[in-house]
């Protein structure tokens, strides 16, 4: 008998016995001794039992038992499961094209089925500013009008944000808001030209280039602006982190970048929140302890002058940890293959389901092992994505692959084998919920 069960993520420990599986009413028992978010399923007795650590574990255990029952597994099962990494995330870019609240709710529905627990919202970029900031209203009355190609305007009100946060929290998901600074800020500069180094009004940006915009780091009003934004953001945010971007500020000198970093890191600390940022912020030696760097370069760090691996390790040296989003396997805005009708390929080519499923977090950056890794996060930038349908088919089924890398141990993944045949239960759930997914070749 093949020892495995069709579950994604692959479970940590599994014992199968001959004989009849339990059936009928499930007995739920809280067991505070289990690891956070963990659960056990026991179908060897007369009645199925789920033991769970906390509310998340109870949800995950119920989903797993339902998938086992639907798959018609013969015999009894004893299954222990708990996550490898505490941070299992997805980033959605609302800035290049707005993603509306009902779609974000559907994304959250898909995430809970994959045991993902952080939704990172990329709320601002050159093409649009997508969160209402009451003290700087033109950010959304002016800065939210368009997106890439001039389409996809819109923004979240603070009320929308709070409602979405509550919807996510009820599904064990924490929101991580990102305001990208000091680059990726053209939309803010269109709204408030006095924040730009040249101080002159410019037109909205509808292209897809990166790296050209920046705040005036020598003007005090810039810090008043950032302080106001971070204050309102911290006030809205229940989770511990504010993500402040820090990436691809290519037109700024090192000296100016470090000056800005020092000031803004102090402003985040003053809100009582912790810092999350893209790994380039590791250029700074002023990171507060507990800061989280998000690594977005490739599974083999490039030697391109930015010093990706070194920037990432700088977070560890300063008492922080890393979330890994390698561009060639965790960027779900990439094409599946050369024929996909949308998506990017900047990381060196398309990203198939198999590629998304078969990388090992501890094998990426020399010097970055298990303890240094807080978690794994998929990203979905939206330069080429304009509709709910396109967003869902870029995410699914690949998001299941990222979720498994984040949750399952290497031994469990090895034992379970290929991901695609184990997606049966999730595919049925996606179909029942009307969440379209890409029919990639691996699905058969
Ligand atoms: C890289 S990830 C970016 C984004 C783009 C994305 C497209 C990162 C720090 N920057 O600005 O939207 O690639 O895949």
List its salient traits.
444 residues, alpha/beta, 8-stranded parallel barrel, 5-stranded mixed β-sheet, 13 helices, 15 strands, 30% helix, 16% strand, binds ligand TNX
> How are the strands of the largest sheet arranged?
6-7-10-11-12-13-14-15
> What percent of residues are in strands?
15-25%
Give the C-alpha Rg: 22 Å
Low-confidence stretches: none
| Main sheet properties | 8 strands, parallel, barrel
Written as H for each helix and E for each strand, in order along the chain, the element string is: EEEEHEEHEEEHHEHHEHEEHEHEHHHH
Specify the structural class.
alpha/beta
Bound molecules: ligand TNX
Number of helices: 13
| Helical fraction | 25-40%
Number of strands: 15
Distance between the termini: 23 Å
Average pLDDT level: 97
Overall geometric form: globular
Protein model, in words:
There is one protein chain. This protein has about 450 residues and is of the alpha/beta class. The protein is about 30% helix and about 15% strand. It is built from 13 helices and 15 strands. Helix 8 (about 310-315) links the parallel strand 13 and strand 14. The chain is globular, with a radius of gyration of 22 Å. The two termini are about 25 Å apart. The model has no long low-confidence stretch (mean pLDDT about 95). Ligand TNX binds next to loops.
